[in-house]
Amino acid sequence: MPTTTWNRHHVLSLSDFTTAEYDTVLQTAASFQEVLSRRTKKVPTLQGQVVANLFFESSTRTRSSFEIAAKRLSADTLNFAAATSSMTKGETILDTAKTYLAMGTDIMVIRHREAGVPNAIAAEMDRLSVRVSVLNAGDGQHEHPSQALLDLFTICTLIDPANPRLQLLKGKKIAIVGDILHSRVARSNIWSLIASGAQVHLAAPPTLLPKLFAEYFSEETGDSSQDLFTISSSLPLPHSPLPLIPNPQLFLHWQLEPALQDADFVMTLRLQKERMTAHLLPSLREYHQLFGITRAKLQLCKPNVKVLHPGPVNRGVEISSDLMDDPEFSLIQSQVTSGVAVRMALLYLLGSGKA
Ligand code: NCD
């Protein structure tokens, strides 16, 4: 394992991650990737520790990925699903967390539809002075740090498999396309990509951009033909507003093409229909025509462009079905594979000090 120091007790957001921390995660994940390629894919690192997956919101890949990651590290795992828990009898979130604490949980992996729930549980664990680490597995529209770290790992190992590091993305053009308004994945990715020195281009229809951005468009320009801006204010989020702006690495487009032009990587986002409280799009067909990623549209990008998507995918909406399955362009399956190594790295870094 890499010997770099790691002092973080919880992973709630990437807003204050340092370059050294990113590199520690990337290098630790690389060594676990190697473990996962062996015949015996298990190490005894977290033997005797308990990892509880507290998912108050649905999930397929994140929950399974944390579970297999914990098992590969020989931890004992507890899986909680809100729908079949005592929450249906009125138990609160904090009381649920304390129940798992009383069973000897060392690491709580938490997903909730409300922003800030993992922070609140972490604060309660700290107040109780217990050595329990909290890992945010996605909170509302706020952050999804392990997803952004696995995206980073997927891209960095593609560039340099032997030595993935943050610096590899310096100067690369990365487009993030789609439902940015509702996306915790986008918010975490923006932090890591800005930290890497990449040029980050956000592209979405104005209704799927945070309100502040949309206002900026109309106030500053009044001209929809001029579509490239450096953002001049921050997102109104409770825990981690976006990097302070003007930020020369962050660009905003309400058309797809300027974001794709010469891009090295394209990150597509799912249309989060379950979070849409109003009609934000005329139709899915029109959305696909204007913002859906297809092989033809990728012609605008660098020849070796690769496409990412955190999943689950609305096939034929944010990305065409054939492109999604095309191994020449799509990194979607390798994101899922990377997820296990990256989550092993995070659990190891949070848990190894506790043995
Ligand atoms: C994302 C999530 O839940 O935030 N998915 C995931 O964790 N793999 C993105 C999404 O739901 O669209």
Plain-language structure description:
The chain has 355 residues and is of the alpha/beta class. It has 2 domains: 19-143 and 337-354, Rossmann fold; 145-335, Rossmann fold. Helix content is 36%, strand content 14%. It has 12 helices and 10 strands. It has helices at 19-36, 61-72, 93-102, 117-127, 145-159, 184-196, 211-220, 257-260, 284-291, 295-298, 321-324, 332-351; strands spanning 50-55, 76-81, 107-112, 133-139, 173-177, 199-203, 229-230, 250-253, 265-268, 306-308. The strands form 2 sheets. It has a 6-stranded mixed beta sheet with strand order 7-8-6-5-9-10. The protein has a 4-stranded parallel beta sheet with strand order 2-1-3-4, sandwiched between helices. The radius of gyration is 20 Å and the shape is globular. Mean pLDDT is 87; it is low at 214-245. The chain binds N-carbamoyl-L-aspartate (NCD).
